[in-house]
Structure prediction request, 69 residues.
Amino acid sequence: MVWEVLVNKIKDMMKEMDEAMFQDVLPEEKLLFRRILLQIRENLMTKEEIESCSIDFKKKCMADLDDKK
Prediction:
């Protein structure tokens, strides 16, 4: 119960911060920012997947990335 109260307070504070930070931001700018964050997330996930590959597969993945340059 105590945790639920704390979590709800944190959520309320985050909503207030979100409103304050983005009050003068246009909807188009919000969408662009969200898209950039999603692209960063996708890039990081790709990097993690490459790092988790076996050595041979990693070499193939890196060769494919070099070909794209």
Observations:
- The chain has three helices and no strands.
